[in-house]
Amino acid sequence: MLSAQTIARVKATIPVLASAGPAVTQHFYQRMFAHNPELKDVFNLSNQRSGRQPAALFAAVAAYAQHIENPQVLAAAVERIAQKHTSFVVKPEQYAIVGKHLLATLQELAPDTFDSDTTAAWAEAYQFLAGIFIDREGTLYAQHKAAEGGWEGERAFRLAAKVAESEKVTSFYFEPADGGAVMAFEPGQYIGIKVKPSQGDYQEIRQYSLSAASNGKGYRISVKREDQGLVSNFLHDELAVGDEVALMPPAGDFFLDTQSQAPVVLVSAGVGLTPMMSMLETLAQQQPGRVVQFLHACENQIQHSFKARQQELAKAHGVPLRYWYNDQHGLMDLAPIRYELPLADGLFYLCGPIGFMAAIKGQLLALGVSGERIHYEAFGPHAEL
Predict the structure, then answer these.
(1) Which of 94, 124, 131, 142 lies in the 20 to 30 Å Cα band around 212?
(2) For all residues of the chain together, what is the average pLDDT?
(3) What is the largest CA-CA distance in the chain?
(4) Per CATH, which fold does 4-146 belong to?
(5) pLDDT tens digits, 5-47
(6) Which one of 29, 95, 126, 141 is the catalytic residue?
């Protein structure tokens, strides 16, 4: 455990960190990539350019400093980050590189605050936190390897089929190149894919939600073409049936509670319906009697993915479907259907743009839904709603 002196020294730096804001982590990433450019093959450089990753890292650093004497408060965040790290195949030795540049960044940006004693305290605190991550990630890697059809790190998969689901979304069906089984996953989890786009300078790793129920034979992801999306455009335009990619084992802490019988409401916008399709397919297979509602919003009908499949499942299992098209109905408003929602005991799963999820969470809270029954997944770096 950390000493009281170390905790006090770290907490004393909180005002300095707060005043600096994400400039701390922006400087950190610039420094790290300048000295260790090989890490550009690991980190999502698009999220670096957008500022989302530096902002997310700053929030994590600030939260750790704030709760350093009681890291259990951060257990959910640690689990979320550790899960994501396994899909990047983060290695224990990389924590030393990150720690070196983080401490150097603090000294360079605030030399008066980060004297030798304070820097030593932060070094001790960082090592303590890194140990927590390394231990948890080691456990996850071991579980992936030991699972039936599982593996550790990268595994070669072949693109078996490519199916357009809407104007901007295409599904990609992958089967293992070795012909073996593949490990099961929880509905709502994602998988890491590693590719080398022809238009990019580095290998790129992205995480995409698995969009079908687990079947032990292969995986399906459904990817929206983003205007400036290096990887999404590569997948849509260049990856051909028969090509091989590297996949990492399924991961993620956002998934359907299949042990519960509580009513479920799946709420999505745009491509955020991909994990919801996995949940809906799984519910139809494993819990056909469970009460489910499916609420989805998108720009218009031609951008509505999986509509026919949703209607097929709804007809077979009595699932109410409600759609909001922005060009016809405007934004999703739950007030008119509040008496039809299981506000008292239902589990609500949200996925879509951050603004959409924040608005829906706000509506649910206003309708009396307790926060612990609202679960959500943010694509890319985590963001609080």
Answers:
(1) 142
(2) 91
(3) 67
(4) Globin-like (1.10.490)
(5) 998 998 998 888 888 888 888 888 889 889 998 888 777 666 5
(6) 95
Q: Is the pLDDT of residue 372 over 80?
A: yes
Please choose, from the candidates 341, 342, 303, 346, the residue with its C-alpha nearest in 3D space to the C-alpha of residue 322.
341
Residue 179 tokens, joined: 């012909």
Whole-angstrom CA distances from 30 to 33, 53, 88, 113 are: 5, 12, 20, 21
What are the tens digits of pLDDT across the range 301-314?
999 999 999 999 99
Phi first, then psi: give them for residue 280, nearest 5 degrees.
-65, -45
Give the integer Cα–Cα distance in Å for 179 and 339. 50
SS3 string, the chain, reads: CCCHHHHHHHHCCHHHHHHHCCHHHHHHHHHHHHHCHHHHHCCCHHHHHHCHHHHHHHHHHHHHHHCCCCHHHHHHHHHHHHHHHHHCCCCHHHHHHHHHHHHHHHHHHCCCCCCHHHHHHHHHHHHHHHHHHHHHHHHHHHHHHHCCCCCCCCEEEEEEEEEECCCCEEEEEEEECCCCCCCCCCCCCEEEEEECCCCCCCCEEEEEEECCCCCCCCEEEEEECCCCCHHHHHHHHCCCCCCEEEECCCECCCCCCCCCCCCEEEEEEHHHHHHHHHHHHHHHHHCCCCCEEEEEEECCHHHCCCHHHHHHHHHHHCCCEEEEECCCCCCCCCHHHHHHCCCCCCEEEEECCHHHHHHHHHHHHHCCCCHHHEEEECCCCCCCC
Q: Where are the domains of the chain?
A: 4-146, 155-247, 264-377
Catalytic residue among 29, 64, 137, 186: 137
| CATH of region 264-377 | 3.40.50.80
Q: How far is CA 277 from CA 155, 167, 210, 214, 239, in A?
A: 25, 18, 9, 11, 23
| Helix 52-66 vs helix 4-11: crossing angle, to nearest 10 | 130
Q: What is the pLDDT of residue 142?
A: 97
The binding site for FAD comprises 190, 206-209
CA 53/CA 182 separation, integer angstroms: 31
Catalytic residue list contains 95: yes
Residue list, annotated binding site for heme b? 85
The architecture of the domain spanning 155-247 is Beta Barrel (2.40)
d(CA 269, CA 280): 15
